[in-house]
Design goal:
- The protein is α+β, with helices and mostly antiparallel strands and 322 residues long.
- The protein folds into 2 domains: 187 residues, no CATH class; 82 residues, no CATH class.
- The chain contains 8 helices and 13 strands.
- The protein starts with 16 loop residues before the first strand and ends in an 18-residue tail after the last helix.
């Protein structure tokens, strides 16, 4: 049986070889190879891959690119709760927001009486009566008093009619995200994973490559080996020569000579190898027709093919000669 390319062990029992996505599914990758055991797959998914997938930046990319995950179409990372002006607002998939009911404010006066106040969105105003009745009934029962909920409901209804105040709110909602060392380390680990699995996919795996050996060890330990620190770089978009010829939201890996150029979601990376690639190899991910891979001939055919006529560009790729 084939060994796992990450842990180098022969899978046994429930730990079987799985269909491993070379580019992650959460950025639209669908090219797979059955060469990683389920244990290693799960470990990477629960670690750096999971953090990237669930983080704001990659969630935003998945949403904008309309990536279809196992759970369905990627959802907006802006959905959730926001605090502004001492109140909580909830935002939905269509970027609509409303005031969220978070509980009652309670105050006690000098005569021993207790006052309750609440803030609730106009859309949920119909819930106000039942929420107040529930709150008061629980308080009265705790004090050992009998509760006639019908009378209580009528009393609360009168209080609401006489005592509610309408306020127009236009909050400024913000969502902060941070690019810290862990994020950058996770991003580089993902780049190493794509490169390492791509090299196995294309069969470019010389036994004496220290870069590949340290990449495998880094993925197994989920921590970048110090040897690779000056081998993996985050680059500027202008450094990548095929970018303007590819559809929006395409991720790719191109290996040429002793280098691997990668675009992963909105990030550009360069990995320096310690051996020469015999030919150009590439993988394009998140295309409507599925991932495309191959050598220099397939890449040329892709760039000059009818495919690009489906997209509006102010430029076309240069003419290639066979």
């Amino acid at each position: 049986m084939t060994k796992c390319i990450i842990c180098k062990k022969t899978p046994q029992g429930s730990n079987v070889l799985t269909d491993e996505h070379i580019f992650p599914e959460f950025i639209g990758g669908n090219l797979k190879k059955k060469n990683v055991c389920s244990s290693c797959n799960s470990n990477m998914g629960a670690d750096f891959e999971g953090r990237l997938e669930n983080g704001f930046l990659f969630s935003l990319f998945s949403y904008q690119a309309k990536v279809v995950k196992k759970s369905g179409l990627a959802k907006s990372p802006f959905v959730g709760d926001y605090k502004a002006g001492g109140k909580t607002f909830e935002v939905d998939e269509d970027f609509n927001y409303k005031l969220k009911f978070t509980g009652f404010e309670e105050s006690r006066s000098s005569d021993g009486s207790t006052s309750f106040s609440m803030s609730i969105d106009e859309e949920d105003f119909g819930r106000a009566e039942s929420l107040i009745v529930k709150k008061l009934a629980r308080r009265l029962k705790k004090q050992g008093k009998n509760v006639d909920e019908n009378k209580l409901r009528m009393h609360v209804n009168n209080l609401i009619e006489d005592g509610y105040k309408v306020e127009s709110l236009k909050p400024e909602l913000q969502r902060r995200f941070y690019i810290d060392r862990r994020f950058l380390s996770d991003l580089k680990l993902l780049a190493l994973k794509v490169m390492f699995e791509s090299m196995h996919y294309f069969g470019c795996i010389p036994n004496d490559s220290k870069v590949l050996k340290k990449s495998r060890a880094s993925l197994q330990k989920k921590n970048i080996d110090p040897f690779l620190e000056d081998k993996v770089f985050i680059c500027d978009k202008d450094d990548f020569f095929v970018e303007k010829y590819l559809p929006l939201y395409t991720s790719y890996m191109i290996c040429l000579g002793g280098y691997c150029y990668l675009k992963i979601a909105d990030w550009y990376l360069l990995i320096i190898l310690d051996y020469e690639i015999p030919s150009l190899y590439f993988i394009l991910a998140n295309l409507k027709e599925g991932d495309v891979s191959g050598d220099v001939i397939e890449l040329i055919n892709f760039l000059r093919g009818d495919y690009l006529k489906k997209f509006e560009y102010s430029y076309m790729p240069p003419k290639f000669h066979d």
